[in-house]
Structures are given as C-alpha cells and as structure tokens.
Predict the structure.
Amino acid sequence: MSFIKKIFLIAIYSLIYVKAVELFLNASYNFKLLNIEHWQYIWDQWNSGWTIKSSHEFILVATLLLFVPVWLIGAVILLFLNTNNLKAFVKRKYGERKQRKMVQKAIADAKKPKKPEPKAKVGTIDQKAPVNSNEAKNAFNKKVVAMAAVVKKKKKKSPIKALEINQNAPMQSASPTQASSHAAVPPPASEPKAKEISKNEAYDEIGKVLYDTGAGMYSKAKFDGHITDFIVMAADKIGICVMGPDENELVADEDGFGDMAPVWFSEVTQMVSPVYIASKVANFLKEKGSVYGLGESVKLVPFVVMWRGDVLNYDSMLEQWQELGVEVLSFASSKNKELMSLQKFLDKEDFSNKMDQTMSENIAKLFVMASEEAKVA
C-alpha cells in the first residue's frame, strides 16, 4: 500500500476518533472538545486548586490526558498494518453474513410444503396413450386405482372384486362404468427405509464398493489441506471420490466469496463444499498431469458420494454441478434418491480395466508427491 493511501487512511481514522471522543465528552460532561472556552475553564479550575474527588471527574481528566497518546498509538498501528489482511477479514465476515442469510432462506424455501399433484378424475381414461408402452400401462393402472378408491368410499357395503391386468396383453379401452366396477390394484409395498450408518461404516462400505470394481485404490490423499477419501485408478481413468458431510439437512452453495471457498450449510454448522474439493483436485491433477506422467488419454472423474442426509436444494444445483464436471451420487441412507446411485455410476464409467501393478504403484507415489506440492503451494 502506498504512503499516500496510508496517510488518507490515518486522516479518516482521525476524524472518526475525534468525533467519537467529542460525542462522549459532550454527552457525559457537556464539554465540547473543540471549544477553546471550555479548555480555558478546565485550566482555570486546575490552577485554582481543583482536586479530583469522584470517579466521574477522574474519567474526564483521564480522557483529556490520554486523548493524544491513544490517537498516536492508533495512527502508528494503521501505518504499519497490512491492509490486505484487514480487507480479507472484512470480506470474510461480510461473506459469512451473506451466506448465513442465503442458507436461512434456502432452508425455509425447501421446507415449504409442495403443492399436491392434481388427483385423477373418476371416469376419465386417456385413450391417446401408446397401446403397448409401459408408460401407458402404468398410467392405466394408476387411474384404475384412483377410480376404484372413490367407488369404495361411495359403496362401502358393495362387494369389490380384485382387478387383474395382464401386463403382456395389449391394453384395451374401458368405459367409466366398467372401470368403476373393479377394485384397485394394491400399490406396491414401499421400500424399507435405509439403515442409518456412521461415517466410518459408510467409509468402509464405499471403499468396498469401489474395491469391487477391480480398480487400484489409494485413500486419504491430501491436496491443499483438503482430503479426497478415495482415488480409484483404472487403466484409462482416475476417479476422485469425496464423501459428503455428516449432516441430516444441507443447503449446497458453489459460489465462493472473494478468496473464500464455497461452503455447504446445515442449521448448526458449515463446511467446505465437497464438490469444490473434488473439482479442485481434478483441476490440479489435470494441470500437473504431464509433470507426473498422466497422459491426456487418462480421464479424470471427480465425484461426491452423499451417504446420508438430504441436500434440500439439490434440484437447483444439478446444472452447476454438471458445469463443474462433478457427479453427485446417492448411497446408503442419503435421502436424495433422485440422484444417480454410486453403483449405477460405477457401472456407467466402468473402472474394471485395472492398471498394471507397477503403473498403479507409480501413480500412488505421484499422488503423494502431488499432494505435498499442493499443500506447500
């Protein structure tokens, strides 16, 4: 920072300091700091033998005596202060405040009850649906269920026969009268809730699933202070796996503030975005690939495994995750079942072509070297 800028900063500080002291003295003692008559009155009282008899008078005298020394100390501090650190501190605090407001709004919006889907009308069946499509058969079954449920409420005493539908036969149209004379097909039993597991158990289970692909494995690699839980090494690709946070409800945010990394929020805490970590490691390895022997033919595949909890705003984040090139997957007791499962992702990417043992060991050593360089940098 230039000397002129520091002088300007000290001038601003001086104005604020003088105004603050003046307001305090005027409010407490009716003493105006810049009024020469008030200073003359204090001086005359002192010369006439005035003695300090109360704490109230002591504070007045101490304030006047320390006025210049305190200002001087503040000016010296500002003169030698690293203003970059000050700016970073202010930006960080402002960013945290802004992000707290964002997460509070996002959590409130995510918890709002969703509008119920419109109920199927009794006596209406879509005749335009393709006859042999699975979609048409499922739609037909759902509408029959809705119609039969209404009939059952209106005719409690009438016997209701079970409706049988041959899924292999072409679907035939039915009149409202015929459809309402049958009972509903009982809905399929809901899937049992996923068992809650600890983070260590999830780590072991994810590691086993990745190991079963047949690829080489390297765990707990550190890059720039961040930990990637697993590195999966196949012949033509390297997977970068980061586990999601151990929280029940989360709001994701991939937009950092200034030099701050983007963070995910829960109602009680915040953590660096796992998508950011996976993306940063992938970009680092891509830049250093030629140095560490990773050819362009080796594909880098960053992904995050959500093993528990619920990302409340996941639907609004999918496009941004795709832009970052990171796949967010569901596993174990994750509530975001709309996300692709870890197993389906591994089947799609196919890590089964295992690296040569020597090459795998060399890559593992290179990861150690790369992580140490990233940490220093």
About this structure: The longest helix spans residues 83-110.
